[in-house]
Write the structure tokens for this entry.
Amino acid sequence: MTKPEMISKDQARVLWEQAVAHRSWQDKVIQKVMFDMLDLKGSSYTVSWRSVDPNDTEKAIRRDFEEVLRKLIEEGEQRSSLWRGKGKGKGKVSFVPMPVSELEVAQAIVDASEGLHPECVHNEQVLTCALLGKLPARLTAAFGTPACAVHPERNTAKPKDGQPKKYGTGRNSARYDLGFGHPTVDEGIEGLVEIKEGATIEGLRAGLSNDLLKLTDDGVPPDAFRISWLVLSNRANPDEALVTIHDILRHVSATSWEDKQTEPGTKWRLYQFPNGSKLRLAWYHAVPKGKLTPLWA
């Protein structure tokens, strides 16, 4: 019999802190409920870490904790109209997306890229399917439910001044290829992925400009992860790619940015902005033929 996956108290605390931050609950009573309230008697909340670790072992079964996490978030959102999304019917659906980390999404992109054959990638939908197929089962099992944290074609965020922003002229230009977190509340965006495929970077320049414009939007929370995933069917020159990227960023970014060079593990390019937000370029080309490798490997 397979042993259940465990989660430590420290790991659980990180997930809870992320959930609290994305819902601006830092100064609310609920932020203390999960770990700091030893007794819930007299409280309007019904679950906490002690629900899954009553003997203070500092660990719990992951799926049990995730259920507690969803339940506590749901109880908190029932007290906040901000986090209610309208359903298609007469009633309302309270969305309670489960936590999703950049590490999980990045690993899915790495795994998908390793298994893809460049000549079989005919459009961006193929890449989207490949990525979704590599996500953890707990995320894919929640598709189509209030707990879902993965949203293809999510509407773009509104900028801070409240005015709608237009992105290009394509039919999908006002949507993110993949949004993670809350499906309708911009403050609940936990991450974004924009996807492109083609033969050359220069041939995709207009589309990449539109993608990077969306990924650097100030309406997205600064701590949300932002990934541009590009798959090229030909070999590309890494140095020429940097010249194009920097030229695009100078045109689309309203602020300065810093090239943090290539990350050692993924071989992706990392850029950081003054507000702390980070942009990762997961760009791959067909080298050798029939195989995808990171452009800056």
